[in-house]
Amino acid sequence: MTPQNITVLGATGSIGVSTLDVIRRHPDRYKAFALCAHSQVDKLFAQCLEFQPRFAVLRDAALADDLAARCRQAGLTTEVRHGMAALVELASLPEVDTVMAAIVGAAGLEPTLAAARAGKRVLLANKEVLVMAGELFMHAVRAHGATLLPVDSEHNAIFQALPADFSRGLSACGVERILLTASGGPFRDTPLTDLQQVTPEQACAHPNWVMGRKISVDSATMMNKGLEVIEARWLFDAAPAMIQVVVHPQSVIHSAVQYADGSVLAQLGNPDMRTPIAYAMAWPERIAAGVEALDLFRIGRLDFFAPDCERFRCLQLAYDALAAGGTAPAILNAANEVAVAAFLEGRLPFLGIARLNEAVLAALPAGPEGSLADVLGADAEARRMAAAMVAGARFA
Ligand code: NAD
Ligand code: MG
């Protein structure tokens, strides 16, 4: 068989590295066509040496020149590009079959939308795309015949537990509820009075998953679960009231679907992102992912709790933004990106993240999500406001 050409957006990140590991195991099926990263030149060069992609992309010209020189010296024919235009092009070139969207945050929106508009097979890890522009993105997927496969473990689990023709409507398929599981993060039981002092290192030490720093902080605030509620709303055309968050600290059940006849179908597995990545890559087939088999005897028990929306304000804010509609989720997402970056840099306390998100969401009126320009405009305005609030130390 001819290998599928894959463009990996965010190749040097946690999802990118796991994607390349699955590609490495199946060279007959997959070829890394383009590897795209922000600024980790050493890591991207090592990946170029191993996978010999046609293209590599970095953020700016100086970084790209550095990588190009190293590639030439090593005898590689990899062409090195830089900037957003290159990401957009390499997500939509005719030779590309599949795009792994694994950039973190709003930076992934334009290339991922370009992949959908070019009718690609889009493997979506970059949930912020659906949070910011769910309606636009899903419209592009349908209008251009793209194939959208969720990589986020919960949404991948839901996709596996739904019938193949779920796009005809969840109710028509007998679906009553989506049970979106959440680990509760590292601070599920931390006394509220201790949360003010939490450090970035503590927030990034997730009990079950090893992930990039932004999503790790989002897991600690449960903003991640809020973003995932919005993601599920768009991926499965689910009414927000149908999406029930279930705290499940072991992260063995990755999510479930409850049907009208009382059946609940769930997907289980070890917490290793190579499972949903390999599923999305091979769908509708299944391939080896290098993941250890689940040992239920070793796990022994599974626990479930209702989420505490007082402790985890960010989860409630996501439902509020969904209810407000239009650009409200994009505003919340932008505020949160600024808040998380400020927290990681020591400029905002942990509890300031939720307070900042709430303040920005309350201050900016949501507009219609008419076009990409509307979304990017709301994103920019929310970032400006959030940055000013951090600088004004309103939440210190
Ligand atoms: P990460 O921080 O480990 O990696 C991010 C990648 O994006 C890096 O390769 C980086 O170079 C690239 N990048 C960042 N900013 C960029 C920019 N402006 N332009 C171009 N490239 C840029 O993040 P991650 O944990 O791999 O997460 C990636 C996405 O997948 C996020 O949206 C996250 O929510 C989602 N996700 C991750 C996991 C996980 O287990 N890590 C699980 C589910 C969903
Ligand atoms: Mg997830």
TrEMBL record:
For the ligand (Mn(2+)), the binding residues are: 152, 154, 228
Q: Which cofactor does it need?
A: Mg(2+); Mn(2+)
User: Pathway it acts in?
Assistant: Isoprenoid biosynthesis; isopentenyl diphosphate biosynthesis via DXP pathway; isopentenyl diphosphate from 1-deoxy-D-xylulose 5-phosphate: step 1/6
| Source organism, top-level taxon | Bacteria
Q: What is its EC number?
A: 1.1.1.267
1-deoxy-D-xylulose 5-phosphate reductoisomerase N-terminal domain spans which residues?
Answer: 6-134
- Any idea where the DXP reductoisomerase C-terminal domain is? 268-384
Q: Which InterPro entries match?
A: DXP_reductoisomerase, DXP_reductoisomerase_C, DXP_reductoisomerase_N, DXPR_C, DXPR_C_sf, NAD(P)-bd_dom_sf
Q: Name one GO biological process term.
A: isopentenyl diphosphate biosynthetic process, methylerythritol 4-phosphate pathway involved in terpenoid biosynthetic process
Q: Which residues bind 1-deoxy-D-xylulose 5-phosphate?
A: 127, 153-154, 183, 206, 219, 224-225, 228
Which terms does the record give in the GO molecular function aspect?
A: 1-deoxy-D-xylulose-5-phosphate reductoisomerase activity; isomerase activity; manganese ion binding; NADPH binding
Q: Which reaction does it catalyse?
A: 2-C-methyl-D-erythritol 4-phosphate + NADP(+) = 1-deoxy-D-xylulose 5-phosphate + NADPH + H(+)
The residues that the entry says bind NADPH are 12-15, 126, 128, 212
- Keywords in alphabetical order, please: Isomerase, Isoprene biosynthesis, Magnesium, Manganese, Metal-binding, NADP, Oxidoreductase
Q: Where is the 1-deoxy-D-xylulose 5-phosphate reductoisomerase C-terminal domain?
A: 148-236
What NCBIfam families does its record include? Answer: Dxr, PRK05447.1-1, PRK12464.1
The UniProt family comment states: Belongs to the DXR family.
Protein task: Catalyzes the NADPH-dependent rearrangement and reduction of 1-deoxy-D-xylulose-5-phosphate (DXP) to 2-C-methyl-D-erythritol 4-phosphate (MEP).
Would you tell me the protein name for this molecule? 1-deoxy-D-xylulose 5-phosphate reductoisomerase
* Biological source species: Azonexus fungiphilus
User: Which gene holds the coding sequence for this protein?
Assistant: dxr
